[in-house]
Amino acid sequence: MRQAEQVKEKTSHKIDLMNKRVLLAKRPKGMPDASTWQLEELPVPGLREGEALIQTEYISLDPAMRGWIRDAKSYLPPVKLGEVMRAAIVGKVIASKNRNMKVGDYYTGFHSAQLFVVTDGNGMFRIDSNKAPLTTYLSVLGMPGITAYFGLLRIGQPKAGETVLVSGAAGAVGSVVGQIAKIKGCHVVGIAGGTEKCDYIVNELGFDGAIDYKNEDITERLDVLCPNGIDVYYDNVGGEILDTALTRINRKARIVICGAISQYNKKPKGPDNYYLILAARAKMEGFVVIDYFGESETARLEMGQWMREGRLRSREFIAEGIENFHEAFLRLFSGKKMGKLILKVA
After folding, report:
1. Are 280 and 250 in contact (CB under 8 A)?
2. Residues 28-60 as b or e (16 or more Cβ within 10 Å = b)
3. Regarding beta strands 340-344 and 316-320, do their DSSP bridges make them parallel or antiparallel, or are they unpaired?
4. In what order do the strands lie in the sheet with 209-212?
5. Confidence of residue 6 (pLDDT cuts 50, 70, 90)
6. Residue closest to 56 by CA, chosen among 108, 15, 13
7. Residue 14 pLDDT grade (very low, low, confident, very high; cuts 50, 70, 90)
């Protein structure tokens, strides 16, 4: 009897809210279709001691999600069938039995794709909604920005006057990489798909040049825009573009492997020109942003300062409705978005 009373004390009264969450229903072969996901509706559970309830306002949609639903070895365990889809979120605490998480505070972190999140605070970080728009904490001041910051500065190690080439340059990570490289005094060229995206990275973000891979010959344009070769190549796409970039690398070049979005929905193909890394005495290194989460505040402080100075810009593409998770997710691969892709759910 006493044990039952103790359990009852640890659980709050019922919370009269209905949750909606996106479950992984099956593992896709190739491009995910609508049957990959299942939208489930169920009551929000009561809080136990040490827990808080966050109402999600925005969900981050990232290319890495495609890897998380593949049943294969990676830097994180795959999302299990029937589990809520892993995702970074931003939301507001609306109820709390956690002394460190106060009602009204905003948090961001890795959690899951659902309207309401019950958390003990592990992996969540309090943010100041007065210092920057909430969506910024999922873009420049979130995982994409931190990825760009540490991937470029720690692995790429650009020096003033060097040439930096960025693929996926109009995306959430690539657009920040190019801007940081310009801040560091580099000659920056971006590869993007379509005239609108190329105009964006040159005229709004300050890149020195752009290559439209959909309508231009990349090899010929590299000769024009990177006449002194490539010192740092920040790769977000893999495939043929990576292979072509390797033909223009300088001695002691640094190739940063951040992603390979062109390969995520098919059997991956490695670069044919890998031997040129040997000839150039170059270095190719992959990395995962979670290795730098302990230093993320350092990146946020410096990038926040650059934003206030007008040297670093952010653009977000906002889709709406958790019911539209699948359609919004596909924009990652169709190219029908500019900058960071975010799903607004509240």
Report:
1. yes
2. beeebeeebbeeeeeebbbbeeebbbbbbbbbb
3. parallel
4. 209-212, 187-192, 163-167, 230-235, 249-257, 283-286
5. very low
6. 108
7. low
